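A reminder before we start the practical. When you read a complex entry, don't treat the lines as separate problems. The point of joint prediction is that each chain is placed relative to the others, so the output describes one connected object in space. Small molecules and nucleic acid strands, if listed, are placed in the same frame. In the example below there are two entries. Take a minute to note the order of the lines before looking further.
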Amino acid sequence: MKQQTKKRANYFGWFFLLAVAISYITLAFASPDKASQSLLHALDILKQVIPILAVVLFLTALLNTFVQPKSIAGHLGKESGIKGWLLALTGGLLSHGSTYIWYPILQDLRLNGARNGLIVAFFYARAIKLPWLPMMISYFGLTFTLTLSFYTLLGALFQGLIADKLLEKPKD
Amino acid sequence: MKAVQSLYTIAPMLLATIGVVGLFQTFISPETLHALFSGSIWSDTFVGTLVGGVSVGQPVISYVIGGELLEEGISLYAITAFILAWVTLGVVQLPLEASIFGARFTLVRNVLTVVFAMLIAFAVGMTISLLA
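Here is the predicted structure of the whole assembly.
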């Protein structure tokens, strides 16, 4: 099942990449300036992504080597309770880089027993960007920043709880 | 080894997503975004969520655009929804997310994100009004 999902993701990925490459080539003929501008933007993003991707890869390797699926299920599974929520929210707060970089490691955790709700909460808690908070304060003020951060964390928790209910597997 | 396999699986989709983000950054300018707001709190909050959801880039870009929109009279509700959706929603990343987590998980997560962007925007707007 897991293998099948990975294969499907891989085929779709190559197809998607081909479609994007064709879009760039078409754009290069229609508007070379826009095409090179887009390519430069993409390369900039790639440069930012690579170091974080390396860290995520390292974390995934560590996780796969030293953390047993049973232990993941204990910390992030059905019985994880408040500890699980705290781990998910804190992890989301502290994680860096683009969201998609975290997909493989989160899916690994999920396949090893982590609850859907905790993954959803992790994703939403990432909306609070700690390094950018001073910038947000300078644009919108301290009250706005604190209020938004508070409601975002609360929202992450509620979304996780709702997702757990909605994505619950029917009991046989 | 498993980690490298995971990377190999997502690499084409990751590169494609980055390519699409590059195209979006070229074609969707702050001026394009501003033209979409009408002045009504309700519809602007909804538009803010959608526009934030399709926009891509560093969070700081959403602060700069949000700050400009606020100065031009767009409501704080709409700006909050826009900033939140910018970092929590990713229309460009949807195919990648669905291929890794599955369609059901992706649908539930993203619908919740849209709904909560608007709910939180209203909660923040009302709290700020009460505190002012």
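Discuss with your neighbour: Residues 2-131 of chain B form one domain. What might explain this?
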